[in-house]
Amino acid sequence: MKRWFARVVVFFILLAGCGRGDVGESCDSSGKEDECVDEAICTKGADGATTCRKRCTDDAQCASSEKCNGVSATNIKSCQPK
User: Fold this and answer.
1) What DSSP letter does each residue of 39-72 carry, written as one string?
2) How far lies 15's CA from each of 10, 11, 18, 50, 74, in Å?
3) Comparing C-alpha atoms, which of 33, 37, 43 is closest to residue 20?
4) Domain locations along the chain
5) What does the pLDDT look like over 54-73, one tens digit per residue?
6) What is the distance between the alpha carbons of residues 3 and 6, in angstroms, rounded to a whole number?
7) Do 44 and 30 contact (CB within 8 A), yes or no?
8) What are the φ/ψ torsions at residue 6 (nearest 5 degrees)?
């Protein structure tokens, strides 16, 4: 019984780790949409770190501390820090 329970716990831990990142969470490859939740894209910041950011078409869709800028090697824009 314990062995079965341990397998179920491991399964759910692995399943949780395989989800797509929310806005603000880290991701692996800039320009990839499938690493982040819908309406977000993985982008590289000035510090070189990649983060899921909200997709946008103009500055009005972003927070006041962000600007709608293009994502390298794509035709998509995302809300990025000013």
Assistant:
1) TEEEEE-TTS-EEEEEEESSGGGS-TTEEEEEPT
2) 9, 6, 5, 22, 30
3) 37
4) 19-81
5) 999 999 999 999 999 999 88
6) 5
7) yes
8) -65, -40
pLDDT of residue 32: 92
Q: Looking at the chain, how many residues does it have?
A: 82
Helix (H) or strand (E) holding 78: strand 77-81
Q: What residue ranges of the chain have pLDDT lower than 70?
A: 1-18
What pLDDT shows up at residue 24? 94
Eight-state DSSP code of residue 23: T
